[in-house]
Each structure stands twice: as C-alpha cells, then as structure tokens.
Amino acid sequence: MTTTEFNTRLLGMESKLKYFAYSLTSDREEAKDLLQETMLKALSNKNKFTDPRNFNSWAYTIMKNTFINNYRRNTKSNTIFNKTDNHENLPHKQEAISPESEHAHKELQKKVDSLPEEFRVSFQMFTEGFKYKEIAEKLDIPIGTVKSKIFFARQKLMNSLPEYREEYI
After folding, report:
1. 99-159 architecture in CATH?
2. CATH class of segment(s) 3-77
C-alpha cells in the first residue's frame, strides 16, 4: 500500500473513528484528543501495517489501546499506594499551597459566592467536575440554559476580577 493510499484510507475513516472515540470517552474534547492521538500513531506506524484487508480493525485497535493506556496513566497519576495492612489505594493529596495562591483562591471564592444564585449554582457544579448534561438533569433545565449560565458567570467573574484576566487570556 502506498503512502497516498494509506493516508486516503485513514482520512476516510476519520468520521467513524471520531464516533468511536466519543463512545469511549463520552466527552467531545477528549474524543477529539483521542482521535488526533490515534491518527498520529497510525501515521507514525504505517510501516508496521501489513494486511490491507484489516485496515479498519487496525485503526480501531490503535484507538482502543490508546484510550486504555491513557485511562491507566490518568488513574495511576491520581493514586498513591498506601503500605498499611489494609492495602487501600488513596487519592493523591496536593502539596502545600503558596500564600499568594491561597489568597487568590479565597478572593476568587468570595466573588463566586457573590454571584446571583441562578448563575452560581451551575458554575459551581461545572467547576466541581459535572458535565453540562449532568447539570441540566440535576437542575431540570435545558442544556443550552446551563451553558448560558456558566458563560455569563464567567463573564461576571472576569469583569469583577480584572487583575486576573491577563493570566487566562
């Protein structure tokens, strides 16, 4: 198989791979990252591809293995091993926070707490790790409304904290 044929087949599978990535991650951004990583691995390992009849399964296998490896890597990095008798794994604890960082965090938290409730609840849920869909379900509001409330909360925070704006733009 020539390089052109290989690239054409790989690009032809992009939409199917994107769908598969989304089914694995359930998150659009993570799916895009997984797709990009898979395409890069496939292109960099095209010399290892031998059987043109199994091109699709080869690409799907790369994606599945990449997803599994990333998942394991993320799980390991967020866990420390406890050497006590019960052998439980504990979440990794953060190191000491600098006084400047702690002050900035307290100031930011005050501003978040001062947001009107209609924006604050959605925003806090989002920063705690809830997905848009989960927030919409818990608050029983449309997903578009959730996105709008989070957007407006961010805007209000940026306007009330101009000294931090430079860091995040």
Report:
1. Orthogonal Bundle (1.10)
2. mainly alpha
Cα separation, 118 vs 132, in Å, equals: 15
Report if pTM > 0.85: no
Per the DSSP assignment, residues forming a β-bridge with 90 are 80
| Dihedral sign, Cα of residue 80, residue 81, residue 85, residue 87 | positive
Q: Would you call 82 exposed, middle or buried from its count of C-beta atoms within 10 A (0-12, 13-18, 19+)?
A: exposed
List Cβ neighbours of 80 (8 Å cut-off, separation of 6 or more): 89, 90, 91, 92, 93
Q: What is the mean pLDDT of each run of 10 residues along the chain (169 residues)?
A: 86 91 88 92 85 85 89 71 52 58 74 86 85 90 91 85 56
